[in-house]
Specification:
mainly alpha; MetI-like fold; 13 helices; 0% strand; MetI-like; Sugar ABC transporter permease; membrane; MetI-like_sf
Length: 296
């Protein structure tokens, strides 16, 4: 007993020493910046020799009175509410398709996954050419079908939808890989048992596959929500938040406030709001959906 206790303590010391580098990096680049951002949101923006002063909730009051903030919030909620279910549904359909035995299955998987490996700036430039009025690929197609020309990115009624479609096209391939891996991990005897019982393909998916895919769905859902509130790259190339703030998202609004107008206090306030939204959405998912997850 006596000799076993020092050995256990030594193992605990080794374990903490192994964890220490990762903990220090996490503390230095994640937790400490989050705390300092929260503190800075209660101070004014330092300008020149004038140091930051305590202003309390004034930055939050100013943010709530800003119509551009509310426009960005509404746009981001629409962006998340449309892109997330579309990305997940498309990823699941593609995974079910390429999971079957067929000729050229490897090439089809590669084609679905290719947009994921492209940088978002490259994807934005590709679709910018598609959406270009008069001579873009989409324009040529609509003109050939007899429809008139339309400025997809210049019209406030269609600009956000165009941006959402680009995000769906980019992310669905990544989520497909997770669903495909989950489908391949299922026991093949389940399909054989369902076939013996005479279950249809839809019944087998809804009653067997979909419940067993819930852990993957929860993982994909959390990541898709995070991506929906942090995606900003393609806006720099495609719309820059326009026209008339129709595609202004929270993170792009944060960039403009912090780096274009150099209002660091307002940028810190927006950062706190975005972090609060992400943490709240993630906790809500884990506490609500985790009860429906069937872990193997």
């Amino acid at each position: 007993m006596t000799s076993a206790q020092p050995a256990n303590h030594l193992k605990a010391v080794y374990a903490w020493l192994m964890l220490l580098p990762a903990m220090l990096i996490l503390l230095a680049f994640t937790h400490w910046p989050a705390v300092t951002t929260l503190v800075n949101s209660f101070y004014s923006t330092p300008k020149g020799r004038r140091a930051a002063v305590w202003v309390g909730p004034e930055n939050y009051q100013t943010m709530l009175a800003d119509p551009i903030f509310w426009q960005a919030m509404v746009n981001n909620l629409w962006y998340a509410g449309v892109s997330i279910p579309l990305s997940i549904a498309l990823a699941l359909l593609m995974a079910l398709w390429v999971h079957q035995r067929m000729l050229g299955r490897a090439w089809l998987r590669m084609a679905f996954f290719t947009p994921t490996v492209l940088p978002m700036i490259a994807v934005a430039n590709i679709w910018l050419f598609f959406f270009t009025p008069q001579y873009g690929l989409l324009e040529r197609l609509t003109l050939w079908l007899g429809f008139g020309s339309h400025n997809w990115l210049g019209d406030p009624s269609t600009a956000l939808g165009a941006v959402i479609w680009v995000a769906v096209w980019k992310e669905a391939g990544l989520f497909m890989i997770f669903y495909l891996a989950a489908l391949q991990s299922l026991n093949p005897s389940l399909r054989e048992a369902a076939a013996i019982e005479g279950a249809s393909r839809w019944a087998f998916f809804w009653r067997v596959q979909w419940p067993l895919l819930m852990p993957t769905t929860l993982f994909v859902l959390v990541n898709s929500i995070i991506n929906a509130f942090r995606t900003v790259d393609h806006l720099f190339v495609m719309t820059k938040g326009g026209p008339d703030n129709a595609t202004m998202l929270l993170l792009y609004h944060l960039y403009e406030v912090g780096f274009r107008y150099w209002d660091t206090a307002a940028a810190a306030t927006l950062t706190v709001v975005i972090i609060a939204i992400l943490v709240g959405a993630t906790l809500l998912q884990f506490f609500t959906l985790d009860k429906k997850v069937h872990y193997q």
